């Protein structure tokens, strides 16, 4: 597969489109794009020359055919100082990656769903320690699976005992409820079987009711375990607001923040910007997993399953605007979604010393975000208090309140952990600080 660099071609296309639309604004080496405030890197304490290393590192992955294309963005103090599109969004059709390419962001949906629920918090609908059974009664009498004792006459791999406490809203937001999941746990086979039985036309509400019939993997609050908890977060938003999650996101978040390219299901009119999904073959070279066509599950009908855990597609530009709102303490360009104190609560560590195995040591977990708690074990240049999350198709973002930095990587690769695109983005960003 011949994957080429298309940064400058993408810039020309976007500049022409911006001129046609009458957009204003940017530095000479950055795309002109409405809603992306730009500045020379040096004016916000970063080096333009050193930021150029991001492109060098990312291009090397593309040249080795380890990823098809990458969009990277760095902002500091509210200004975008690096915004690059390299490689191809659809290598099979020689379609260049552009700054407005649209990506499956998977679990980067979770912070948006969590923010939506905290908007309900600010309207007085709940307290964090409230049991979710107040709105979802199917979770009122949960059981917990424990391994079958060797000397007991039992059938099956486990027996169940009653949950000692009710699952709380806080535990759903922090992934500490003990829910069955696809990663691990004694109930993993039952969860996978349940997931395989999802039918066209099902809703998240249907899935949540089925999830509540399975026993928990541990007592609520006992451990941290990643899974589908944020689908329950989204369902709580639906029940409390009386809207579908799609309607709530659009009316309460995407339209107010000017995020026009963020959708649960991509309109077919935007397929010319949708990215192909790739995975490594046996030699580590990329191979097509899903073409960017109307057959993609992120496009195809029926549009009934709105997953707060991982259903969105978006652009780097839109996602930057959401996280800049968070960095600003809940406000962007005069539009306030939540208060500064709610953002502080969301980005604090709620999990104490519990191991956050997906992030590794040195991290805790807040309400929808992982949080850097100890720089040494975390092995990251991001400041303590930085919050982040990532997506299953190789995307990642972080927000550093100390340095006022936002970093975003958009690519479409699964699995992706065999290459260091995401951690390299962080190291290349922080080595460019000069103040």
What ranges have pLDDT less than 50 throughout 5 or more consecutive residues?
1-26
In whole angstroms, the N-to-C terminal distance is 42 Å
* CATH topology name of the domain at 108-237 and 329-368: Beta-lactamase
CATH superfamily of the domain at 108-237 and 329-368, called what?
DD-peptidase/beta-lactamase superfamily
CATH class label of the domain at 108-237 and 329-368 = Alpha Beta
Helical proportion, percent range: 25-40%
Strand content: 15-25%
Biggest sheet strand line-up:
3-2-1-16-15-14-13-12
Structural category is alpha+beta
**Reported CATH architecture of the domain at 108-237 and 329-368:** 3-Layer(aba) Sandwich
Shape: globular
Count the DSSP helices.
12
Mean pLDDT: 93
For the largest beta-sheet, the strand count, sense and barrel status come to: 8 strands, antiparallel
Series of secondary-structure elements, N-terminal to C-terminal = HHEEEEHEEHHHHHEEEHEEHEEHEEEH
Number of β-strand runs: 16
| Assembly annotation | single chain
Give a brief description.
By secondary structure, this protein is α+β, with helices and mostly antiparallel strands. Helix content is 28%, strand content 16%.
Structural topology:
Elements: H1 7-21, H2 48-63, E1 69-76, E2 79-90, E3 95-96, E4 103-104, H3 110-122, E5 143-147, E6 158-162, H4 169-174, H5 188-196, H6 204-211, H7 229-241, H8 245-254, E7 277-280, E8 286-290, E9 313-314, H9 316-327, E10 331-332, E11 335-336, H10 340-346, E12 363-365, E13 370-372, H11 375-378, E14 387-390, E15 396-400, E16 405-410, H12 421-430
Antiparallel strand pairs: 1-2, 1-16, 2-3, 4-9, 5-6, 7-8, 10-11, 12-13, 13-14, 14-15, 15-16
